[in-house]
């Protein structure tokens, strides 16, 4: 499972990544991305993610 985290606050992103990792072993976490520009660039450059 691929998960993209979009979160400005580092503390919240770290907590979310820790929680997700504890629930599921087979996940790939991308991010955290902190701006609309980073998200746009991620989807434009990452061929592993589906085009939405």
Salient structural properties:
52 residues, 46% helix, 2 strands, two-stranded parallel sheet, alpha+beta
Describe this structure in words.
The protein has 52 residues and is an alpha+beta fold. The chain is 46% helix and 21% strand. A two-stranded parallel sheet has the order 1-2. Helix 1 (10-23) links the parallel strand 1 and strand 2. The longest helix has 14 residues, at 10-23. The model has no long low-confidence stretch (mean pLDDT 88).
In DSSP terms (H or I, runs of 4 or more residues), the helix count works out at 2
Order of helices and strands: EHEH
Mean pLDDT figure: 88
- What's the number of extended β-strand segments? 2
Multimeric organization = single chain
Shape: flat
The strand order across the widest sheet is: 1-2
Helix percent reads 40-55%
Radius of gyration: 12 Å
Poorly predicted regions = none
Q: Return the structural class.
A: alpha+beta
Largest sheet: 2 strands, parallel
Kindly report how far apart the N and C termini lie.
17 Å
Strand content: 15-25%
Chart the SSEs and their pairings.
Elements: E1 2-6, H1 10-23, E2 28-33, H2 36-45
Parallel strand pairs: 1-2
Quick overview of this protein structure:
The chain is 46% helix and 21% strand. By secondary structure, it is α+β, with helices and mostly antiparallel strands.
């Amino acid at each position: 499972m691929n998960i993209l985290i979009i979160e400005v606050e580092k503390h919240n992103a770290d907590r979310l990544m820790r929680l997700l990792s504890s629930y599921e072993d087979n996940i790939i976490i991308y991010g955290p991305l902190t701006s609309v520009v980073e998200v746009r660039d991620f989807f434009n450059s990452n061929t592993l993610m589906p085009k939405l």
